[in-house]
C-alpha cells in the first residue's frame, strides 16, 4: 500500500523525505513503475511509495525529474545527508540490484547478462505493438505483436528467461505481458494458434511468483483506468 495512496498533483506539497528510507515515485497503473516494484518485492527491500498524477504533475516532482516520468528513486545519502534521485525503470532496477546483495537478479556471467539486455532493449517492439492495439490500430498491432513475440518464444530454454527462477529479465518483460488480457476486446488472444507454448508456460509460472502477486493491480481496476486512458482522460484514483 502506498504511503500516500492518492496520486499527488499540481499544487500538492512534496512529503518530507526521511533519512534511512527509500522512496519510489510511482503511478498505480504504470508498467514501467511496476518493473521497479517487482525488483523491490523480489529482493524484499522496504520502501515508501508516492504516486504521481502523470497528467497534472506536481511542480516539485518536475524539479526533481524534468520529464516527469515514473519510476523515480530517491533517498538521503548516509554520508553527505543530501538527497539522491535516479529516474528510468531499467536504471532504477539495476541500481536496486547492485546495491542490495541479497537475491541478485542479474546474471554474473557477462555474456549471459549481455544476451538478456539485448532482449530487454528490443522489447520496445512488444510495447509499441501493445500500445498500437490499445490506441486504436488493432489489426496492425496484433500482427506486429505476434511477429515480435517469436524471438522471445525461441529464447526461452527453461522455466524462466533467467533459468529455474526469475531473473531481472523476467521482471523487466512481465508488466506488459500481465496486461495482455486487456487486449482481448481489440482482437488479440495470446497463443490462440498454439505457437507460443513456452511463453504460455512462462506466463503461468510468473503468475505464481510471489513478487508478481505482491504488486499486481486487480485486472478490473486496470480496465477502468484503461477506459479513460484510451479516451485521453485517465483517472488515477478509484474509491
Automatic annotation (TrEMBL):
It holds the Pfam family GST_C_2. Residues 20-104 form the GST N-terminal domain. Residues 109-225 form the GST C-terminal domain. One of its GO terms (molecular function) is glutathione transferase activity. Its EC number is 1.20.4.2, 1.8.5.1, 2.5.1.18. Keywords: Oxidoreductase, Transferase. GO terms for biological process: glutathione metabolic process. The keyword Transferase applies. It catalyses: RX + glutathione = an S-substituted glutathione + a halide anion + H(+); methylarsonate + 2 glutathione + H(+) = methylarsonous acid + glutathione disulfide + H2O; L-dehydroascorbate + 2 glutathione = glutathione disulfide + L-ascorbate. GO terms for cellular component: cytoplasm. It comes from the Eukaryota. The keyword Transferase applies. Gene3D superfamilies: 1.20.1050.10, Glutaredoxin. Exhibits glutathione-dependent thiol transferase activity. Has high dehydroascorbate reductase activity and may contribute to the recycling of ascorbic acid. Participates in the biotransformation of inorganic arsenic and reduces monomethylarsonic acid (MMA). Belongs to the GST superfamily. Omega family. This is Glutathione S-transferase omega.
Amino acid at each position: 500500500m502506498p504511503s500516500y495512496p492518492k496520486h499527488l498533483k499540481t499544487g500538492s506539497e512534496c512529503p518530507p523525505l526521511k533519512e534511512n528510507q527509500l522512496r519510489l515515485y510511482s503511478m498505480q497503473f504504470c508498467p514501467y513503475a511496476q518493473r521497479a516494484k517487482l525488483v523491490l518485492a523480489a529482493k524484499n527491500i522496504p520502501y515508501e511509495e508516492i504516486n504521481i498524477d502523470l497528467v497534472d504533475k506536481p511542480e516539485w516532482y518536475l524539479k526533481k525529474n524534468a520529464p516527469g516520468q515514473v519510476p523515480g528513486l530517491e533517498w538521503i545519502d548516509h554520508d553527505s545527508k543530501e538527497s539522491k534521485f535516479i529516474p528510468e525503470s531499467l536504471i532504477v532496477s539495476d541500481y536496486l540490484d547492485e546495491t542490495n546483495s541479497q537475491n541478485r537478479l542479474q546474471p554474473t556471467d557477462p555474456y549471459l547478462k549481455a544476451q538478456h539486455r539485448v532482449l530487454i532493449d528490443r522489447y520496445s517492439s512488444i510495447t509499441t505493438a501493445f500500445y498500437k492495439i490499445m490506441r486504436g490500430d488493432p489489426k496492425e498491432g496484433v500482427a506486429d505483436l505476434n511477429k515480435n513475440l517469436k524471438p522471445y518464444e525461441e529464447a526461452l530454454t527453461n522455466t524462466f528467461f533467467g533459468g529455474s527462477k526469475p531473473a531481472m529479465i523476467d521482471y523487466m518483460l512481465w508488466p506488459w505481458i500481465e496486461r495482455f488480457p486487456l487486449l482481448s476486446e481489440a482482437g488479440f488472444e495470446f497463443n490462440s494458434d498454439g505457437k507460443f507454448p513456452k511463453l504460455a508456460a512462462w506466463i503461468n509460472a510468473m503468475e505464481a511468483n510471489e513478487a508478481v502477486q505482491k504488486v499486481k493491480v486487480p485486472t478490473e481496476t486496470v480496465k477502468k483506468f484503461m477506459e479513460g486512458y484510451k479516451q485521453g482522460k485517465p483517472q488515477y484514483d478509484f474509491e
